[in-house]
Write a structure and sequence with these properties.
The chain is an alpha+beta fold. The protein has two domains: 198 residues, Nitrilase/N-carbamoyl-D-aminoacid amidohydrolase, CATH 3.60.110; 26 residues. It is built from five helices and ten strands. The strands form two sheets. It has a six-stranded mixed beta sheet. Strands 1, 2, 3 and 4 form a four-stranded antiparallel beta sheet that branches. Helix 2 crosses helix 3. The longest helix is centred in the last third of the chain and has 24 residues.
């Protein structure tokens, strides 16, 4: 499994996506993607296109307003302008060993319910591939690692984390880190991970507890305002 910058050209007459780009020297359009590619033992290729994009580096916020400013977007991830995405969470599977991997690209790993979609689609282990170099040697790349621990705990899935210039490591289903390599250190790590097809409460119901908490908070605030105005 590796990361790649990929492109898809639209066929003549095909409906264009909102992120389609026009070739500068031809009347044709294409989409660019930040992609995870899995090459199995039979040399079959499976693709997943990153869907939670980083504002500014990978997608222009409020694109329908600022579309013409895309060429000035910050170049933090190697690409400017808005990248294409996909709707479904593709689980990458080895056709011989039947290993089902959740391919999390970079900052997708901070979104718990989003990552839960991979597990609901059958993933047995999580692989995080990320470029943490643009953080510099700041707490940012460490915080990113901490989010990965949360994903392991809430899904009870082990994690293989490969961080370009960041902290590469293994994380077990209880959030324990092993073989962590320091920031900016070249290294190769090798280890076994356990596959697990169990779907936890969080995976099955997502951020349900958070939504209930927000709802109760709004009810309490509303009731407090009602009582205050009633007394007034």
């Amino acid at each position: 499994m590796t990361g790649a910058a990929t492109q898809r050209e639209f066929l003549a007459g095909e409906e264009l996506s909102s992120t389609a780009r026009k070739y500068s020297n031809a009347d044709r359009y294409y989409d660019s993607y930040n992609t995870a590619i899995y090459i199995d033992t039979l040399q079959n290729f499976t693709f997943y296109h990153k869907s939670k994009l980083v504002p500014g580096a990978e997608i222009m916020p409020l694109r329908w307003i600022f579309k013409y400013l895309e060429e000035y977007a910050l170049e933090l991830g190697g690409t400017t302008g808005s990248l294409g995405t996909q709707k479904e969470r593709t689980v990458l599977t080895d056709d011989i060993y039947k290993v089902k991997v959740a391919p999390s690209i970079c900052y997708e790993s901070i979104y718990g319910d989003f990552m839960g979609e991979y597990i609901r689609n059958g993933a047995e282990v999580i692989a995080i591939i990320t470029n943490d170099g643009w953080w510099g040697n700041t707490p940012g790349h460490k915080q990113h690692l901490s989010y990965a621990k949360l994903r392991a705990i809430e899904s009870r899935k082990q994690i293989i984390r490969c961080a370009n210039t960041g902290i590469s490591c293994f994380i077990d289903e209880f959030g324990n880190i092993s073989q962590a390599k320091p920031y900016w250190e070249f290294a190769v790590i090798n280890g076994d991970v356990n596959l697990n097809s169990v779907k936890t409460f969080f995976v099955r119901f997502g951020d349900l507890i958070s939504y209930i908490s927000i709802g109760l908070t709004l009810i309490i605030i509303g009731w407090s305002l009602f009582v205050r105005f009633k007394k007034a």
